[in-house]
Design a protein that fits this description.
The protein is an alpha/beta fold. The protein has two domains: 52 residues; 196 residues, ATP synthase, F1 complex, gamma subunit (Pyruvate Kinase, Chain: A, domain 1, 3-Layer(aba) Sandwich). Helix content is 64%, strand content 14%. Strands 3-2-1-4-5 form a five-stranded mixed beta sheet, with helices on both faces. α3 crosses α4 and α5 crosses α7. The longest helix is centred in the C-terminal third of the chain and has 80 residues. About 2% of the residues have low confidence.
Length: 297
């Protein structure tokens, strides 16, 4: 069916409206990336400070029971995993990548697997992969909203640890690499075993002044462990959100370019069709003029 100037004009208007929406989403994604990347950079220094403090505590207190060690020794419980994804679409393969990575990583691990999905989209991908769901959390929409989410995850994890239900807790999320590129990563958050303790024990102190633990060593150690768990979850969520917005920005940039190409084609077709109509009208006028001139002669 041949196009008309009216139908082409409607298509051009619809494409223009869609491009306005795409550019608005692109601007929102670009502005959101900044706050999450800034948060990740700030957490990096704090995370290292907490690790240094834990190393000092381990050197002074020696071996002491840590979170998750009892479950690891008995071998009881299940393996829980927190998978960070997105609630909204238009993010390319963002959810597919992290869901497939989590499924492949957990598959060889022995024991019962239960998943905490952060995001409706990744929740559906994990369900399709056959992983049983232990719970669901909505994706935070700002840096301030990350703290309540981390608190909920820690409460659920502590409850399961106290009941001896969980052997391990893993985190899966996308981490920004460069530009709009991201890569899925994992972190075993619990149990805090001897290998983790030895790694922190060997951390060198950055200055020549020897540190000293003030107050009760056990109380300080437990406080630092809580901070370590909190910062690890916070950083995972912030990096996931930065990757999500980077992926959405890249998708919107591709969509914007595709709409530009479509508008160029539509406008070209519209102008050609309009010029063809004008030419036909001119030909009709000339033909009528010549016919009238012949009759008069």
């Amino acid at each position: 069916m041949s196009e008309t100037t009216a139908s082409l004009r409607r298509k051009i208007e619809n494409a223009g409206d869609l491009q306005s929406v795409v550019r608005t989403m692109k601007a929102l994604a670009a502005s959101s990336i900044g706050q999450y990347e800034k948060s990740v950079r700030a957490l990096g220094d704090y995370y290292h400070t907490v690790e240094l403090g834990l190393g000092v505590c381990f050197r002074e207190s020696g071996p002491a029971p840590l979170i998750g060690e009892r479950q690891e020794q008995t071998g009881a419980g299940a393996i829980d995993a927190v998978v960070f994804g997105s609630d909204q679409g238009l993010v390319g393969q963002f959810n597919d990548v992290v869901a497939e990575f989590a499924i492949k990583t957990l598959a060889p691990l022995p024991g019962k697997h239960r998943i905490w999905a952060v995001g409706e989209r990744v929740r559906a991908r994990l369900a399709d992969g056959g992983l049983p769901e232990a719970g669901f959390f909505p994706v935070p929409n700002s840096v301030k909203a990350i703290t309540p989410l981390v608190g909920q995850i820690l409460v659920e994890s502590e409850t399961r640890q106290n009941h001896g239900e969980v052997t391990e807790l893993h985190l899966f999320y996308n981490r920004p690499t460069s530009g709009a590129v991201y890569a899925p990563v994992s972190q075993r958050l619990l149990p805090l075993d001897e290998n983790w303790r030895r790694k922190l024990f060997d951390l060198p102190w950055p200055t020549g002044n020897l540190p000293e633990v003030m107050g009760g060593g056990t109380a300080t150690l437990r406080a630092l462990i809580r901070e370590y768990l909190f910062v690890s979850l916070f950083r995972a969520c912030a990096e996931s959100l930065a990757s999500e917005n980077a992926s959405r920005l890249a998708a919107m940039q591709r969509a914007d370019k595709n709409i530009d190409d479509l508008l160029e084609d539509l406008n070209g077709t519209f102008h050609r069709l309009r010029q063809s109509g004008i030419d036909e009208e001119l030909f009709d006028v000339i033909s009528g003029f010549e016919a009238l001139s012949g009759v008069e002669k």
